[in-house]
Amino acid sequence: MNTTKPTLPTPDDAALWYEDRLYLADQRVLPERAEFLSYQQAPEVAEAIRAMVVRGAPAIGVTAAYGVVLAGRAAHATAGVGWKTAIEADLERLAASRPTAVNLFWAIRRMRALIERLDTTDPTPALLREALAIHEEDRAANHRMGDLGAELIEGPTDIVTHCNAGAIATGGYGTALGVVRSAFAAGKIRRVYADETRPWMQGARLTAWELMHDGIPVTLQADGAAASLMAGGSVGWVIVGSDRIAANGDVANKIGTYGLAVLARYHGIKVMVAAPTSTVDMEVASGAEIPIEERDSDELLSCGGRRLAPAGCVARNPVFDVTPAALVDAIVTERGVVLNPTTEKMRALMDSSMGE
Ligand code: MRU
């Protein structure tokens, strides 16, 4: 079902919600159109994640959690007391949708832990409560990260961000853009430079739109324009989100983040990564072990339906890269800030509880 809502989502009104079925704002057509798609079956949710209807690591995790609710409902309707066996295929489909954002696997693991505790009666209400909790916790984590990240910025300064780590990439408010929102409210940000972020243009389409919606000064730039901007001396911080942070603090994020971090170090600019602890994967020792998604080369070879490169041209399309921990000045999570990350500091963070 396609529905068109009269208003676009706001920073605190995430672009996904559950009301008997899952609704997703179609991020492929934003900001040109606000179209909401609805889903009643988990395999369709898995396909929506793969096809980028919904994107951004925390939003993918929240979506997968709601996908498990739909899977549980269908499994109980078809298999009754045998629903725990029947749900497995859908859990696997959801987990196979995209490989890099660990929030997806984190959310499915958390839903699985609940499934193990449930009996053979209809699991839908309990699964929904857990999915709603995951969603609400993510929104709260973003507000907390906003406060913590903003404290690190002296300002007033200019910021560079890459991709979209905003409200629509999360349960609400945003990770990197949550920090931007909080820091702007505190008078610490003059202007945000948003990299357009080839080939999906998350910066041009989504970050520029979110910041303009909030009245935060934003200038779009080509991905290759960051170096000359940095040389001008107005930028104090690069602030980005992450899809997976390894145990040693290496950060996987949208392709191009690594290059930005190298540039930032050369120009004496600091790099902040804002991500909830659901993005931290202590099971991978370093970024070298993070699976990097490679998408269809057609995404690069064409743009807006128009072929760019000559017929037969070969293209590589890795959609994430790994920034070594040594280039990261601060990892901001809802549990606290890790400066100059190392394995020991990341372990201490993950062993701590909220607020410590
Ligand atoms: O391919 P995408 O659009 O899902 O990639 C998203 C990013 O790389 C974001 O920076 C990351 O998920 C953090 S979102 C809060």
From TrEMBL:
The active site is at residue 243. It catalyses: 5-(methylsulfanyl)-alpha-D-ribose 1-phosphate = 5-(methylsulfanyl)-D-ribulose 1-phosphate; 5-deoxy-alpha-D-ribose 1-phosphate = 5-deoxy-D-ribulose 1-phosphate. Its EC number is 5.3.1.23. Substrate binds at residues 55-57, 98, 202, 253-254. The record marks 163 as: Transition state stabilizer. Keywords: Amino-acid biosynthesis, Isomerase, Methionine biosynthesis. Pfam families: IF-2B. GO terms for molecular function: S-methyl-5-thioribose-1-phosphate isomerase activity. Pathway: Amino-acid biosynthesis; L-methionine biosynthesis via salvage pathway; L-methionine from S-methyl-5-thio-alpha-D-ribose 1-phosphate: step 1/6. One of its GO terms (biological process) is L-methionine salvage from methylthioadenosine. Catalyzes the interconversion of methylthioribose-1-phosphate (MTR-1-P) into methylthioribulose-1-phosphate (MTRu-1-P). Also catalyzes the interconversion of 5-deoxyribose 1-phosphate and 5-deoxyribulose 1-phosphate. Part of a bifunctional DHAP-shunt salvage pathway for SAM by-products. Belongs to the EIF-2B alpha/beta/delta subunits family. MtnA subfamily. This is Methylthioribose-1-phosphate isomerase. It comes from Thiocystis violascens (strain ATCC 17096 / DSM 198 / 6111).
